[in-house]
Write a structure and sequence with these properties.
Blueprint: E1 2-6, H1 10-22, E2 27-32, E3 46-50, H2 51-59, E4 69-71, E5 73-78, E6 87-91, H3 92-95, E7 101-105, H4 106-123, E8 128-132, E9 138-142, E10 145-149, E11 161-164, E12 178-193, E13 201-206, E14 211-220, E15 223-233, H5 244-254, E16 262-265, E17 269-277, E18 282-283, E19 286-288, E20 294-295, H6 303-323, H7 332-360, H8 368-381, H9 383-395
Parallel strand pairs: 1-2, 1-11, 2-8, 5-13, 11-19
Antiparallel strand pairs: 3-7, 4-7, 5-6, 9-10, 12-15, 12-16, 12-17, 13-14, 14-15, 17-20, 18-19
Helix pairs in contact: 1-4, 1-6, 6-7
Length: 397
């Protein structure tokens, strides 16, 4: 079998490494328009990984703990004014796990994955191929497979399967069958905090305008710091006109006391937010994973985690099929269709939950903040439900 993996981001690299490990008779070609000599470590975008994703990267030998900040506690709360403030505490120690997840820069995740892939490809040059600096312009169906158009004519050889893992951000994507523009912006960057900082605590604050999140980062020479994700309706977004000092004041006013005191803020980047989903992962012999399959609102921080589970599920299913005595009687198309169905219970509840939360911030119903506060207070008291939700967020369905 020959597989083309399109996109050397976290999901694509993880898929290629998993396939190289678990599908020893499969030829794998990894494509990316990015040149190999581009320094991916310079990309400081922040990623939040759940415990399941951390364990997957550890298994692949691509986890560098010194570059990441473990999340030990998650605090979710409703900002005033609300009749019931409401808050939920989720602690790793109470769940019997070493951590709930981790936060790290994009480059600190992709660089080790890429290094692992290149090392493995160098050891098996007849089976594993790196095609960096090669943009895939089109994927065309052919008998029992696909061919790729890379701008230099179609590849002579065909592929049994193409996996698209190159998603991009909502504003740059072609619209998929299930789509919605939330008309919200996410301002992302980092803030500095007075000691002792968050100490491994992630904060999600539901404000009148949208969610505001602080994610702990490893401290540097200047002290504690955290990644910031600040969501606002586009019609009321005046952040671009504020000074750094004004931004700090506005953010501080909306955070709970447990966040501590902010002392500085980085330059912020703005991204439009929306939902963009393929109803099915599979179209012929082309399968989409990660942001190429589902681009979600960042309210729950689950987009990349969902993509890594897509990759793992695909490789696990192909491995089980290849090892099965009945493999000859069950075709690849049947296996791929089964994967599509099996991913649905994990994908669609997460898509629905993030979509509901994102839309709810546009509803200015008088009692809504109070209802949200009551829901949080109720969840905090319902220990079995809180535990089930926490484990769903850590490991998926």
């Amino acid at each position: 079998m020959k597989i083309a993996v399109i996109g050397a981001g976290p999901a694509g690299l993880a898929l290629a490494l998993l396939a190289a490990e678990r599908l020893p008779d499969t030829e794998i070609h990894l494509f990316d328009s990015r040149p190999l000599d581009r320094d991916v470590r310079a990309d400081a975008r922040t990623l939040a990984l759940n415990l399941g994703s951390v364990r997957l990267l550890q298994r692949l030998g691509a986890w560098q703990a010194e570059s990441a900040q473990a999340i030990q506690t998650v605090h979710v709360s409703q900002a005033p004014p609300a009749p019931v403030a409401g808050e939920v505490w989720i602690r790793a120690a109470e769940l019997g796990v070493p951590q709930l997840g981790a936060v790290l820069p994009y480059g600190a995740l992709v660089a080790p994955l890429q290094q692992c892939w290149l090392a493995r490809a160098a050891g098996q040059p007849a089976r594993l191929f790196s095609r960096f600096g090669t943009a895939v312009l089109a994927i065309r169906p052919r008998a029992a497979g696909v061919e790729l158009d890379c701008g230099e004519g179609p590849l002579v050889e065909g592929f049994d399967l193409a996996v698209v893992a190159e998603g991009g951000v909502f504003a740059e994507q072609d619209r998929k069958p299930v789509t919605s523009d939330y008309r919200q912006n996410a301002w992302v960057g980092s803030v500095r905090l007075a000691p002792p900082g968050l100490q491994g605590m992630a904060i999600e604050r539901f404000t009148r305008n949208g969610p505001l999140a602080l994610l702990p980062l490893p401290p540097d020479a200047q002290g504690p710091r955290a990644a910031l994700v600040w969501c606002l309706p586009q019609a009321e977004d005046d952040i671009a006109g504020l000074s750094d000092a004004q931004r700090l004041v506005v953010i501080q006013q909306q955070l709970p006391e447990v966040a501590g005191r902010l002392t500085g803020i980085s330059a912020l980047k703005c991204f439009a937010l929306g939902l963009n989903v393929e109803p099915r992962l599979l179209q012929g012999r082309t399968l989409r994973i990660g942001n190429a399959a589902q681009t979600l609102h960042p309210v729950a921080g689950q987009g990349l985690n969902l993509g890594l589970r897509d990759a793992q599920a695909l490789v696990d299913a192909l491995h089980d099929w290849a090892e099965s005595p009945a493999a000859g009687a069950v075709g690849l198309d049947a296996v791929l269709a089964r994967i599509d169905r099996q991913r649905a219970p994990d994908r669609w509840p997460m898509i629905a939950a993030t979509d509901f939360l994102a839309r709810s911030f546009a509803w200015r119903l008088p009692g809504l903040p109070g209802l949200r506060g009551l829901a949080l207070a109720g969840l905090e008291r319902a220990a079995p439900l809180k535990t089930a939700l926490a484990r769903r967020m850590m490991f998926g369905a």
